[in-house]
Amino acid sequence: MRASVPRNSVLITGARAPVALHLARLFHGAGWRVLLADTPAKPISAASRTCDGYFRLPPPRFQSKHYGDVVESLVKRENVSLVVPTCEEIFYLAAAWRERRMTARLFAPDTDVLARAHNKFAFIELCKSLNLAAPYTVLLQNGADLASIRSMASQMVFKPAWSRFASRVLLQPKPEDLDDLAPTPQAPWVAQEFIAGQEISAYAIAQNGRLQALSLYRSIYRAGKGAGIYFEAVDNEAATAFVSDFAAGTGWTGQLSFDLMRRPDGTVLPLECNPRATSGLHFFRDPEPFAQAIWSGEGSLKPDVSHPQTVRLALWIYGLPTALRRGDIRGFLDDLQSAEELLDWPQDPAPKRAQWRALGEIAALALRHRISLQRASTRDIEWDGPDQSSMEKLSG
């Protein structure tokens, strides 16, 4: 009797996210043993038939050392070969990999590169150092910095240097709208010139600066101001060139995402970088070449999905109110009909049902801490720079 060939094991973190579920399905389809890990008790990915094991972790934002200890033990015990982060836990993992002798490969850049990309001012400076065009952006660290830009407020966009999902963004505010801002060196803000045009999002994977996979898309519906919940593929040569040049200039290895703006003259400017997985991943569905690209660095992939992608539950929760405000119910129903449910996958229906339980867990957390659903979904993994002294204390 022929002995079975042992499978490589991949650990995918941030199991709460639909992108983690998608990665699990891709690696499982490529023959890998798939392990998932995160803080919630019942994330959607844990319900997938592609999940060979789910492991609950401490919240890294509040227990970073304990988080590192548990991940290190898990990697050794389960003989993990590869760790693929999906959300902001990537920063805590990168720190653990720098400080410890980990036995698995982390698909991510070094902590210093991650921090520069995530910081909304440092990212623009990084682009400029690579001779990439970028919008005028000012760092705000105190009241004097804020006062110096006050007269230009209506031409600018203000946002925390460390933030996600467009949280707390002020778009072309009046000068008096800045009165409540209190930037500090530990919690700085940026003021960036307002760029008119069409927003384009990008998701890529790269190895040692070589771009291996790229999808460009735009978000038709969003959860509030930030996270997209309905995605439509686009094609743009200038955006492709920017992503390729950035990856090459930084020697990037890992997943890489951007918010870009295409101006009326066709040029593309970067707004910010998300050095992690984003929804553009859902436009890749062929398991073997995708897993191979991450593991071995071989191949060059293009998206193999063309239909719009959405999570219908999120679309009903966030998209319907948007349509009602616009007075465009017919358009909303047409969009609902034309999009594919990104949680659907052959012979794997359980995660679609599990999203209700996962949503309930997030809603309970939101109620307990009196915060929004969106904030509750990331509260325990947020990373706001090397100085985390301003973070809220864990309660409950």
CATH architecture descriptor name of the largest domain: 2-Layer Sandwich
Indicate how many domains the architecture comprises. 3
Radius of gyration: 21 Å
Main sheet strand line-up: 14-13-10-11-12-15-16
Distance between the termini: 54 Å
Uncertain regions spanning at least 5 consecutive residues: 1-5, 389-396
Helix-strand string? EHEEHEHEHHEHEEEEEEHEEHEHHEHH
Residues in helix, %: 25-40%
Biggest beta sheet summary? 7 strands, mixed
**What class, by secondary structure content?**
alpha/beta
CATH fold node name of the largest domain: D-amino Acid Aminotransferase, Chain A, domain 1
What portion of residues belong to β-strands?
15-25%
CATH C-level category of the largest domain = Alpha Beta
Give the overall silhouette: globular
Number of strands: 16
What is the CATH homologous superfamily assignment of the largest domain?
ATP-grasp fold, B domain
Number of helices: 12
Report mean pLDDT, rounded to a whole number: 91
What does this molecule look like?
The protein is an alpha/beta fold. The protein folds into 3 domains: 1-108 and 349-396, Rossmann fold (3-Layer(aba) Sandwich); 109-134 and 199-347, D-amino Acid Aminotransferase, Chain A, domain 1; 136-193, Dna Ligase, domain 1 (2-Layer Sandwich), CATH 3.30.1490. Helix content is 34%, strand content 22%. The chain has 12 helices and 16 strands. It has helices at 18-29, 64-77, 89-99, 111-118, 120-129, 143-149, 237-250, 287-296, 312-326, 329-338, 350-369, 373-376, and strands at 9-13, 33-38, 53-56, 82-84, 105-106, 137-140, 156-160, 170-171, 189-193, 198-207, 210-222, 228-234, 254-262, 268-274, 309-310, 340-341. A 7-stranded mixed beta sheet has the order 14-13-10-11-12-15-16, sandwiched between helices. A 5-stranded parallel beta sheet has the order 3-2-1-4-5. A 4-stranded antiparallel beta sheet has the order 6-9-7-8, with helices on both faces. Strand 4, helix 3 and strand 5 (105-106) form a beta-alpha-beta unit. The radius of gyration is 21 Å and the shape is globular. It starts with 8 loop residues before the first strand and ends in a 20-residue tail after the last helix. The model is unreliable at 1-5 and 389-396 (pLDDT under 50).
